[in-house]
Amino acid sequence: KKVHIVRAREEVVFGAQETRLHIGFDRSLTDRAGRRMNVETPLAAEVLEVGRPLGLTDPETFGRFKAVLKEHKPDLPADARIAIRGSAITGDGFNKATGRYEKGYFDEGRDSDLDVALVSSDTLEKAARLGIELRQNGTRTVALDNEALMKLGLTELAEQIRAFPGRGKSSIMIYGSQEALNFRGPNMILDVK
């Protein structure tokens, strides 16, 4: 499968009638020793061509996914935005052990999950108050388990996302800002109205 290699701080924006799609990330980072890293990141060519995440690339499936998000939008804080990140955007899964995108292309030989990001400073603050584990200097949560989803009132949303065919292992994380999400890598904001 074809991927495009993009450099740090590159941004691609798609406009659509009901959904504004934004791919952004910041990989101009420094390592733990303070050395500047020159990171290149893949983006799946199909994502760039159709403006939808892998696993949701046909209009019908994407429309159903947007309907789920729209249904739950009133239950979320006013500042909340939802994004997809990970291999549904890059095409290749990230191998934490090697620090490379090399796990194999999305859905080839396996059912890939959707990494859903809820960007909301209000929800991150609530998660911290509830004792949900934070990472990345307190700017995001870990992938939310069932107990954390229940505490945050996100159980039904998670269940509906996981009900999409082949997406049973999909996860939700909370990020306090778009910058915190961009730090993790490529992501696509789904602004559902």
How does this model look, in words?
With 193 residues, the chain is of the alpha+beta class. It is built from seven helices and twelve strands. The chain has helices at residues 45-50, 59-72, 87-90, 121-129, 146-151, 155-162, 178-184; strands at residues 3-7, 11-14, 19-24, 40-44, 81-85, 92-95, 100-105, 115-119, 134-135, 140-141, 171-175, 187-192. The strands form four sheets. It has a six-stranded mixed beta sheet with strand order 2-3-12-5-8-11. It is globular and about 40 Å long.
Q: Using DSSP, what is the number of strands?
A: 12
User: What's the helix count?
Assistant: 7
Rg, alpha carbons = 16 Å
Shape: globular
What is the first-to-last residue Cα distance? 32 Å
- Report the portion of residues in β strands: 25-35%
Query: What would you call the structural class?
Result: alpha+beta
Uncertain parts: 5-11, 13-22, 27-38
Mean pLDDT score: 78
Order of helices and strands: EEEEHHEHEEEHEEHHEHE
Strand order, largest beta sheet: 2-3-12-5-8-11
Helicity, in percent? 25-40%
User: Which oligomeric form is depicted?
Assistant: single chain
Spell out the key features of this protein.
single chain; alpha+beta; 193 residues; six-stranded mixed sheet
Write the layout of secondary structure elements.
Elements: E1 3-7, E2 11-14, E3 19-24, E4 40-44, H1 45-50, H2 59-72, E5 81-85, H3 87-90, E6 92-95, E7 100-105, E8 115-119, H4 121-129, E9 134-135, E10 140-141, H5 146-151, H6 155-162, E11 171-175, H7 178-184, E12 187-192
Parallel strand pairs: 8-11
Antiparallel strand pairs: 1-4, 2-3, 3-12, 5-8, 5-12, 6-7, 9-10
